[in-house]
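For practice. Any example?
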Amino acid sequence: MVLIGLLSLVPVVFSRLTQECFEVPQSFLLTTGALVLFWRALSLLLAGIGRHGPARHVRSIPGRVAAWARRDPLGAGVILFLGSSIASTITSPNPALSLHGAPDSTSGLVAAFATATVYFASRAVSRGQPVMLVRFARAAGFASLVTSLYALVQLLGWDPLVWGRTATFEGDVRVFGTLGHPNVLGAYLAMTVPLMLWLALGSRSTAERVGWGLCVTIAAIVIAATLSRGAWIGLVAGALTWAVLTLAPGLRPGGTARARGQGRASPVPAALWISLLVAGLAAFLFARAPMGAHLADRVRQITSTSAPTTRSRLLIWQAGLLMARDHPVLGVGVDAFGIAYPRYRDPRYWEIEFGGTPNKAHNEPIQILAAQGIVGGLAALAVIALVALAAGRAVTRKESAIRGGAIAATASLVAFAAQDLMSFTVVALGSLAAAMAGWLSSAAVGEPAPSERRDPGKRKRVPAWAMGAALVPAAFLLAEVVYFPLRAQLHEKRAMKAPLGSAYRAWALTQASRYAPWDARYENLLGASLLVQSGSEPDPERKRDLLRQATAALGSAIATEPENPYFHSNLGRVATAQAALRPPGATEADARRAFDEAMRRDPVNAQVLDQESMALLALGNAPEARRVAERSVAIYPELAQPMALFGYMALLDERWGDARDTLELAVRREWFGEKDAHAASFSNLSAAYLALGRDEEALRAAEEGLSLNPQNSDARANRDLARLRLDAAAAARGASGERTGDKVGSSR
């Protein structure tokens, strides 16, 4: 069954062939599965039209839609939310990007429709039967076990794969399993714990019950290891929901096991003792693992507003609410949070997450309000209310098996909703939540009417012509929303592995842009790479041509996504390089115009300010370069880059003492991990020391620069010169000592 396959595989699939290794492959898999389900549904629809005739089918649409909405009010709410998503996609600053999803996010309209397809498929196949929830829970339990075991491998330091862009806590990598981020891993496991616990309580054999109990224990251990506060809160919220619904008068299911044919004499104690043993062993290992030492600190941060991640969350939420205020009806656009964010950037966020631009609000209600406005917010509220209504009806059903399953499914959804208050939805979480909501919706209604019943094992025979006709739009959509974006990801991966400024990198980025023209990053990356390539090109005409290509690429990126400040800033850098040509290919006014556009879109962007000041200095406008750097210092007093620029300017003016004093301050300030720039500052400090005749300090500064960037040729040259001087001075002292000894000896 396609749906079972999706629930089993979406959370565990990853690929190192794509630039984004986790969410992108998982979203492609979900979309592919949703298109298979769409193909099947469209085939049935076309077959029905063929049997009854188009005219009769059209006349019956109003009545059938009304009857469907009465049977499935939650489905009507889902359709309402999809309608809001379509409207916000159309009004987005980059509608095609909102359709496919932002880079590293993939939460566009395609993901919304794929998730909705999971809901409708789940409701259609469930038909109010607990056995279908068992299958869903087993699929989710399988995925939970796979990703938990891989996370344990990571926790023990046995992962054979080396990963970049990992989340850390105080320098130690947090486990992420097959979901790419510890917060997502913890959230998914928190959703699966109630389902696996329900399976353990209702299993037919001792081995199965003990097995699911161990899976619950392992998941709980990994949730602790993720150090994800949102996942912890989700797990507690799910447990409390289970307890309240189980203990509430009139809602006790009487035990899932008894409902499925077992008595109370069950091996739960054995499962409990084994789980406690595993938990004890895990606690022993935790006490000796790096993450164990951080566990208490992370728990204390749950209520702390001074923790860096809490402060950054609050600032992102503030920006999201401001977006919702300024775009109240339809929001800034589906998955366009990252496009709109620079205008709302707070300098305090820059000091925490230097150079970071969040693609999400890290709070699902705020995300929906910011991206889809009041219309989307009301539609989402309707969906939540209708899910709660379906859950309430399901847990009050007379059948104890349905009540027990409804309690587990509701606890899973509550865990999902609770963690989403501090995080966001990804396809692994959304697809499981949609499947649970679909089952609850069907369980709330109960068995279908006798006239609607059919053997679930029998499938309607669909004529070949209907399947063929339905295959055409399904195949077209597969190419547009899966194949072409996948090819773009593959080329992006190749490009990022190639050296910056290489011809192969430029070719791969060009190919990526061809397959995903809505993703303006590719043209921007292409322009930046061509700029670097032009810097090492000796042929003047070839250099001019490379810069023209860079200008064209960046112009294309800006036309696709004009709100991105980095695109304008890179265009300013290219214009600066063109102005240095003879004859010039651009003017200082062109460069300043581009930087002004960048700052208009992101007024407190320290990187853009640094790039503009360096560009103005290269253009010979030192006073304006100083003015821009002073503005950066006023916003970010502890930032190193503008102070380093002041030191470099003093170095150019041969004010050696001022250069030394300023650069000594700069190298000790906050660089936010920009090692190359930090290395260049040490190299400049070494040059100042050399000019002042302080060769030992010059050697130490040059070596510091090389430790940060071994490829820095200026630092290497300064180091060699300092060594040469020191050796010469030592040799001179030795020769002087020998001469002095001869004189003394001869005088004696």
